């Protein structure tokens, strides 16, 4: 579990809460998890 210093909705670039740094890091971690466990 990773906790990001960001508000709810930080991954949606259409919202004021968008946090590009946190979204980029979350996407990279998600893709790494998918590659390790689903491929």
> Based on CA inertia axes, which overall geometry fits?
elongated
Distance between the termini: 21 Å
Radius of gyration: 11 Å
Kindly state the number of beta strands. 0
Number of continuous helical runs: 1
Mean pLDDT across every amino acid position? 97
| Spans of at least 5 consecutive residues with low confidence | none
- Name the assembly state: single chain
Main beta-sheet strand count, sense and barrel state: none
Into which percentage range does the β-strand content fall?
Answer: under 5%
Q: Work out the count of structural domains.
A: 1
Percent range of helical residues = 40-55%
The SSE string, one letter per element, is H
| Secondary-structure-derived class | mainly alpha
Task: Describe the fold and architecture.
- This protein has one helix at residues 20-38.
- It has one domain (1-39).
- The chain is elongated.
- The two termini are 21 Å apart.
- The model has no long low-confidence stretch (mean pLDDT 97).
- 49% of the residues lie in helices and 0% in strands.
- It has 39 residues and is mainly α.
Condensed summary:
With 39 residues, the chain is an all-alpha fold. The chain has one helix and no strands. The protein has one helix at residues 20-38.
Write the layout of secondary structure elements.
Elements: H1 20-38
List keywords for this structure.
single chain, 39 residues, mainly alpha, 49% helix, 1 helix
